[in-house]
Amino acid sequence: MSEPSSTSTTVAADLLVVANRLPVDRVVNDDGSTEWRASPGGLVSALAPVMRKNEGAWIGWPGDTGTEVEPFENDGIALVPVALSDQEYAEFYEGFSNDTLWPLYHDLVAKPSFRREWWDSYVTVNQRFADAAAANAAEGATVWVQDYQLQLVPQMLRELRPDLRIGFYLHIPFPPAELFSQLPWRRQVLEGLLGADLVGFQLSGAAQNFVRLVRQRVGHKTHRDTVYLPDGRVVRARAFPISIDTEGFEELARSEPVETRAAEIRRELGNPSTVFLGIDRLDYTKGIYARLRAFSELIADGELDVEDAVFVQVATPSRERVDQYRRLRDDIDRLVGRINGDLGRIGRPAISYLHSSFPREEMAALYRAADVMVVTPFRDGMNLVAKEYVACRFHEDGALVLSEFAGAADELRQAYLVNPYDINGMKATMMQAHRAEPKELSKRMRAMRKTVTENDVAHWASTFLDSLALDRDAHDKQTRPPHES
Ligand code: F6P
């Protein structure tokens, strides 16, 4: 992508997305030159058409530190960069977002750190995002704030601009009251979210957790999905399960280059009869260690043979300076080395491990090449990899082994569901998926494909935005709750 053209310093957008990352990342090359590269994720493809139609603006961090970049236009959308200093990167992004909230919201899979200076930085950076949104929104605009990094923005923004319609969407799980209550700043976070008119979650259980916490910790009246604020405003909390660009993935998977590449991948793996595949950000919530152990035990037990089964594990580098992530990388490196050392043969490693990120085309080729996709997080808001695999299996073949603790398991009921804490159970289910008859696989895959085709990311975005707009129309007619709950 070339250098963008600069626009005036503020825009007056009717629809604004406020997200931690811009849809493009600023990359500094070795020679010091800079370029913008599409940052991964389906959010922008879902929102791009509606953003273009509505004079949309996207407010986010450009992915590096220190540099102030003027707003610019990219692909018909105004992008408004919010700068982070090195210290804010360490305290707001790596610290409070990814070493406090991330583990706390994911069932305490790792121990969260509660550091007061990180919280201060979280407040400062949230205020900066709110200021940027306030400065760039037209009168009465709709602002859609995204994810756990920006939970204070709705309230901060409402204080600056009460004319705005504000939505918030949490992409990760929202924990039960028993866990959330550990957070020293629990009340401030709840009040931050209550600045929105509509708070969206992946699953209805998360929305219920939120409403219950608001009742318990803030003391507002609630009834079902609605919170009644003392000033007469109402806030709704509902589930909107996120999805992928299903058609785009299928089209890619059907393309000739991807078909050729998929065949090449299998050849390069030595034409095994079964390819197992895992693709994850290298994150301790994803259950990579347990899944590789399960696979290695199937080989050690003689259930599988390295001559005809291989596990391809792609682990995308992520948050590499955070301690827990650094340790995880070492643990996985050691485990893969040990498994291949103990069980591999010349030219036949049990696990083909790639610590790297790949473009969408290569991902589609991997999905096409894999017989059994193994997605086993201990906790995951949704898990889009599971949906991408399904979108790419247009021959209605292949098996999906899926953790019951991934949000996707709520919709993809025909997957081979597993409890990632139960290694023996996982081994048995992986074998069941591996041995399944083609007829059984196609019955399951057909049903899952129907789900991801009907519920794609465009459907997700329009359902959320329609609900936000509808609630605005209903707002004036709102009365007090029929009774307190
Ligand atoms: O889904 C959670 C999330 O933090 C997203 O907000 C983000 O796009 C993705 O994971 C990758 O994380 P990061 O932005 O920390 O690299």
From TrEMBL:
One of its GO terms (biological process) is trehalose biosynthetic process. It comes from the Bacteria. InterPro entries: Glyco_trans_20 (IPR001830). SUPFAM superfamilies: UDP-Glycosyltransferase/glycogen phosphorylase (SSF53756). GO terms for molecular function: alpha,alpha-trehalose-phosphate synthase (UDP-forming) activity. Belongs to the glycosyltransferase 20 family. This is Trehalose 6-phosphate synthase. It comes from Nocardioides aurantiacus.
